[in-house]
Design goal:
It is a single chain. With 379 residues, the chain is of the alpha/beta class. It folds into three domains: 3-75, DNA polymerase, domain 1 (Orthogonal Bundle); 103-292, Rossmann fold, CATH 3.40.50; 306-378, Orthogonal Bundle (Arc Repressor Mutant, subunit A). It is built from 19 helices and twelve strands. The protein has helices spanning 3-12, 18-28, 31-35, 39-42, 50-61, 65-75, 89-92, 109-113, 129-144, 157-167, 189-198, 215-225, 240-250, 268-275, 284-292, 306-309, 325-332, 341-348, 352-364, and strands at 79-81, 100-105, 118-123, 148-151, 172-175, 200-203, 229-234, 254-257, 279-280, 339-340, 368-371, 375-378. The chain has a nine-stranded mixed sheet with strand order 1-2-6-5-4-3-7-8-9, sandwiched between helices. It has a three-stranded antiparallel sheet with strand order 10-12-11. Helix 1 (3-12) packs across helix 6 (65-75), helix 9 runs parallel beside helix 10 and helix 13 crosses helix 19. The longest helix has 16 residues, at 129-144. It is globular and about 60 Å long. Mean pLDDT is 88; it is low at 297-318.
């Protein structure tokens, strides 16, 4: 049976995400072998205790990989698993890539291998004319220079970036927080059709998945993961584009921001990024110059030294705030000492994508600090 059937089946087992799937695949050599492993064998996998193994065995017993795969293919004929050679190389290198990446459109082998340079352009859903104009200018010149433009097909900056790229004859990738057959917002349906003619739409969610608020912060890590650099052209302080920028920084990708007026609330997010060390962009030539210096090497985050990861003093913790359930679980998994991402994922019991988006939101709330090496600490 197709090995991909077991990837599809494992994803249906509750509590099994990309990090655990990689461990299962590494431990048993294939997810088919992992599927048939005994409870005792499963307990040899890092992070799997007796209770977790019991839950996995119970969930596994209710699924038939062969029939599930046959049904799955009817609506999802095009997808890559982490084992597939064509799975995008850059995305595979992040700590929590989607185990399955669905797509529609025209795949590009060089792009998937990381040969073609990719830049994400993101920003607010309610841009000013200033934001629209500079988004179009940057997208157009990058497309003409052979860059693939990545964005989220959302209203506002995302749509402007996709449109300008297509008008310049370039290639663009739209990352969905829904199934690749569900266009949101619906007003961008004609733009979606244009993207598919020469570019790609991708999602970690199967066909038919409808809009859900918690999906969109998670998809931001895919936008960052597919890109060698992220450009935020206009964003207010609470913009989801900032989550993309923070996650990109965790992935050791370059972050660029366009400055704006202090009188413009839509510029506050970009100005905040610049104050935290993002690269200031002055114009198209300046951006191209900086991108030309971008290293074309392995982008796996480096392991921090003790001096990098442990601050000299630990500030007193703030009183625990009232948070939504997912944020509360993630916040509870972080201590006053630097805590690794894997530990937070394991202790919170949430998918890695949910954890990353929650961490970005906690940063925006000034509740946690992001340290080198994918470590986090309470403020």
């Amino acid at each position: 049976m197709d090995e991909r059937a077991y990837w599809v089946a494992w994803v249906q087992v509750r509590g099994v995400g990309s990090i655990l799937l990689r461990r299962l695949d590494d431990r048993f050599g294939s997810l088919e072998a992992a599927w048939h492993a005994s409870p005792e064998e499963l307990q040899t996998v890092e992070g799997l205790g007796t209770r977790k193994v019991a839950d996995i065995v119970e969930g596994r017993s209710q699924l038939d990989p062969a029939s599930l795969f046959e049904t799955h293919l009817e609506r999802n004929p095009q997808f890559w698993t982490l084992r597939d050679r064509d799975y995008p190389h850059l995305l595979k290198e992040i700590p929590n890539p989607p185990p399955i990446l669905y797509y529609r459109g025209v795949p590009d082998a060089d792009e998937n291998r990381g040969v073609t340079p990719t830049v994400a352009i993101v920003g607010t859903r309610h841009p000013t004319e200033y934001g629209k104009r500079w988004t179009r200018r940057f997208s157009r010149v990058l497309s003409q220079r052979g860059f693939t433009i990545v964005s989220g097909l959302a209203a506002g900056i995302d749509a402007e970036a996709h449109k300008a790229c297509l008008e310049a004859g370039g290639r663009t990738i739209a990352v969905f927080g829904t199934g690749v057959d569900v266009v949101y917002p619906h007003a961008n349906r004609s733009l979606y059709q244009r993207v598919l003619q020469s570019g790609l739409a991708v999602s970690e969610y199967p066909a038919g998945t409808q809009p859900d608020r918690k999906h969109f912060p998670q998809r931001n890590r895919i936008i960052a993961g597919l890109s060698r650099a992220i450009l935020v052209t206009e964003a207010p302080q609470k913009s989801g584009a900032l989550i993309t920028a923070y996650v990109a920084n965790d992935f050791c990708r370059d972050v660029y921001a366009v400055p704006g007026s202090l009188d413009n609330a839509n510029s506050r997010g970009c100005l905040g990024l610049l104050s935290r060390g993002a690269n200031l962009v002055l114009d198209e030539g300046h951006l191209l110059e900086m991108l030309g210096e971008m290293p074309q090497v392995d982008v796996t985050p480096a392991t921090p030294t003790v001096s990098e990861s442990v601050p000299a003093t630990v500030p007193p913790a703030k009183p625990k705030p009232k948070l939504p359930p997912n944020l509360d679980r993630v916040f509870a998994a972080i201590s006053g000492e630097p805590t690794a991402l894997d530990v937070i994922v394991e202790q919170s019991g949430l998918e890695a994508g949910i954890v990353l988006s929650s961490l970005a939101q906690l940063e925006l709330l000034d509740l946690v600090s992001n340290l080198p090496g994918m470590r986090y600490q309470r403020l």
